[in-house]
User: Fold these one by one.
Assistant:
Number 1:
Amino acid sequence: KKWIMDYIQKDSIESFDDAVALVSKLVYFKAQKALVVDDSPLSCEYIADYFRRLMIEPIICTDPTLAIDILKADTKIKIVTLDYEMPQIDGVQLAKKIKTTFTDRDILLFGISGTNSEEVKYKFIKSGATSYFIKPLIREEFVSKIINHTNFLEQQEKLKTYIDKVDKYVITSITDLNGTIKYASEAFCEISGYEKSELIGKNHNILRHPDMPAAKYEELWKTITSGKRWSGELKNRKKDGGYYWVKANIEPIFDNEGQIIGYQAIRQDITDKKTIEIMSITDELTQLFNRRHFNLKIVDKLDEAKKQKQTFSFFIMDVDNFKKYNDTYGHNMGDEVLRSVGRVMNELLAMDGDIPFRLGGEEFGGILASKNIEKAYNRTNALREAIEGLGIEHSKNTASSFVTASFGLVFVDFSKCEVNINSEQIYVRADEALYAAKEGGRNRVVCIDICDTLGGDK
């Protein structure tokens, strides 16, 4: 009379948790519908009453041939009860038909029969039914099974919602052992500009940006193929040729035997962060690294060379008679000369480890990845020749009729000599070499080998 839906035995403090869980379940039930299929209107109403007490809206169907159409018309129906003995089609056959018709939809099927037959029970289960009831229905059993099975359904829906959100907002992908893409999230497609069909089956290197050094990817693959997680920042190329930056975490996927079967990557879009970061270390006019970045990098690279007992090369370069150029051709033309020099430096200093800088005004600098002094000198001289080869007229230049530059180069091989030298001293020695180049007639390279026992210039 009081429309009691269920009761809980108050035998422990956990009973209160059970009560709270049951009340919370009503919130979920209130949005659900159930289809009751039975050729007997009386039986339908009897079962429908059970659903109403659970706050689930029942839909009665006394003609089993209409059940499929009702389910198609109302996607909110997630629970179906099927009587076994019905005309035209029995409950087992209808259960099988529902399962094959709605393969992409989670529907709980409950078989009902007045016969306590194991054969009927297992026919229902084999045909896709979730569970089975025997008439007359016992309220406690009915409520318990509906609650338990809808708990699973509710968790599945929450999981699907979570996966959909991950797919929409998280830049993630899965590849096989060779880097072939097997899965790409919607967020991944959106940021890269590719459709899923254009990514699935393609190698991940279609996103590799030419600005990224090969050593970065060598380190990445070495890490993940050894079974470890790799984390780092990557610049990727979009379909339209643009780019985006990500903070990537890439982990191996293992099978049950501990063998690596693929890799999963989760990324965070850091394009805005990297844009600001790059702007802060980039010279606006020439697009080379600026003095601020130089002050940091020369210390890092010099310390690294000392620890690894490797070579270190650094040059300072001045555009010859640049003030006279500005006075003759104007500052706008002077800026164009500096841009041209910047382009040449970016083109020629493209080896992994090279870092070109604009240090200020017409002064430039560069850290070179050269293994010996001859290569350092030849690369610097090639840059000098390329600048003169631009063929930019400079009538006031004492070294040539074109724009030229003078270079002061410093080289040290820490595997051959242990010399206590810091970045400021390196800069001073390079400046001395640059001064010597200017005194020697400009448009030339003067090189100082720190390890030279004579301490002189070469």
Note: The chain has a mean pLDDT of 93.
Number 2:
Amino acid sequence: VYLRETIYHRAPTTPGLYNGPYVIADYQSGAAIVLERNPYWAGVKPGFRRIVLKFVGSTAALLANLLAGDVDMVAGEGIGLTIDQVLALRRQSPERFTYLFRPSLTFEQVLFNLANPILADPRVRQALLLALDRSRMVDRLFEGLQPVAATWVNPRDADFTASVPPTPYDPVRARAMLAEAGWTPGPDGVCVNAAGTRLSFELLSTAGNRLRDLEQLVLQTAWRAVCVETTLRGEPASTLFGETLRHRQFSAMALFAWTSAPGEVPRSRFATQMIPDAANHFAGADYGGFSDPVMDADLASAETAFDPAARAALFADMQRRFAALLPALPLFFRSEAHVLPTWLRGFQPTGHIGLGCLWAENWHPG
């Protein structure tokens, strides 16, 4: 109720509301926000008198606006063009814009539902990871601009440990691990166990996302090569995150991304107490049902660890636990793509949830 009734929402151009380098001079809901210099700002004088933020409803329309000159720049950070659109634009018009790609803390993963009896075996999960040539996938789909992940911690994060490198591509070892777990190729090439159960999973993801569709196909092909059958399904993001994951109603695997803040303790994702159920009103985000007492203890300690060395040791141990137990299959860290006019100076993408536009006073024409 407060958010709806506050003057920031009802009358955002009211004088005196803002103490930043810009104030809102005009606001058109669902269309545009006009920012103008704040005459009372005591910091660096903004390089532009006015900045107009436009709302464009689709990436296709956004690209059309950019090419027509109706939009000067498109910042990434989760709100701009997709990386494949920007890569295609760079190939077509390499000199027209400045292109920046900044790896972010957004972690692309395949989450396992550990209530699935087949996926409860860590050997099966490890085999699924070994079967993936993630470097080739990143090269083919994203021109190598999205770094392969070892865990959920980005190498740019202060809590990263180099002691847990990405698992290498090794389909031979993947087949051996599946055999060790009791899965051998059947007559049609799909593995079966002694009871005749097929090694078959459903891979769920967001519908209507072209890049996710391509990722799903890559995963399906790679797993088929080591005798794992995968069926693909998509759901609208509102359904996937609002109902399916929240109520743990996916049968095997879900492909989606986590976005975190620098130094964030991932208690909501990995703590036993955060497995969503009726008792906690489905408020947790440990959708896969991961439970490990060592991880629980590390998470609790990390939340109150202020000594840098102690914190680093806890995060290193959590990353080792993640790599050993694989509650999720790490793919890559998403790179945010920014398209800027060649005359713009001072724009610095952050690579995290603090948007680069928060430092707009540093922008200036060059």
Note: DSSP finds twelve helices and twelve strands in the chain.
Number 3:
Amino acid sequence: TTPAFAELFDGPPRVPESPLTQREMDLARSVQDACEEIVLRMAATAHRLTGEESLCMAGGVALNAVANGRILRESPFRKLWVQPAAGDAGGALGAALLGEHRWFGAPRPSAGKGDAMRSAYLGPEFTDTETRSALDTFGAKYTQLDEDAVHARTAAEIASGKVVGWFQGKMEFGPRALGGRSILADARNPRMQADINLKIKFREGFRPFAPSVLQERAAEYFDIDADSPYMLIVAPVAESHRLPAATGDSDKWGIQQLNIPRSDIPAVTHLDGSARIQTVNEANGRFYRLLREFERQTGCPVLVNTSFNVRGEPIVCTPADAYKCFMRTSLDCLVVGNFILLREDQPQFIERDEWKSTLRSD
């Protein structure tokens, strides 16, 4: 924010890591409400001017998943598509596409049905040979399994309460981990939100996490009738999975209310009973098959999914990045391709640089 914002609202911004007060929560809520109102008005104007039924959005505000959810529920548009790298990083893609069409005459065919982009898995990937070489450099201890066994073992580890670093295939393009470079956990476990924030991400315990859900089961768990492949829509948790308000709820203040389970998937349910959803289908490859296996073992088709990094650092890209993040945090298990690593099996990890001191607020 600018000095003008501080003058208008009678004080400087909160110092990072300092305790939250009612003022910060009131300001955050008010800014969000204003943003949603503006976005809905812009959507209504776009619909009036064009008469179109489908809306495509980009730009940083298009990453506001709460506003996106309201567009789907309340605007005249029937369909919504948001470019998954909708912030500044996506400007490079926009510039490349503009040049391709304007100067090189590339055709611009209609997408027709579905998502023509098909997935955000546009980054690098690594073979088992490359992965083994990287792990051996650290003296890492690992077990190599076939694909089915990897899914079965990973699902069992998550179901037992473990937090898993999941590194598979091509890296995602954009700010959301979508099952290529993810940290995964059991959404049914009420401890997971605070544990992952404090012990792995090294940030405030109230930060929310998103659910990844099998696309064919999404409507059973959430009030959503659209696909959300890029984790960019917030929708209410279905009433059938909500819990009655806990006794003493009104006695809690602020973020203390986050400790009250509000659904049978509490690790991904916001205070207002909503969740930022990623719908997962066969285009998500091994991540889809892992969710299917987790459902087979537990009956639940939902996992906590957050980006494989710590606060202030980019999402891991290479197997070496994944191992260093694994050893620097309290992750219980690392799955890289067909290799599974358990924390208790690893040799002592010694680094010379004080990497924690370089973490930035995000």
Note: The first strand starts at residue 54 and ends at 57.
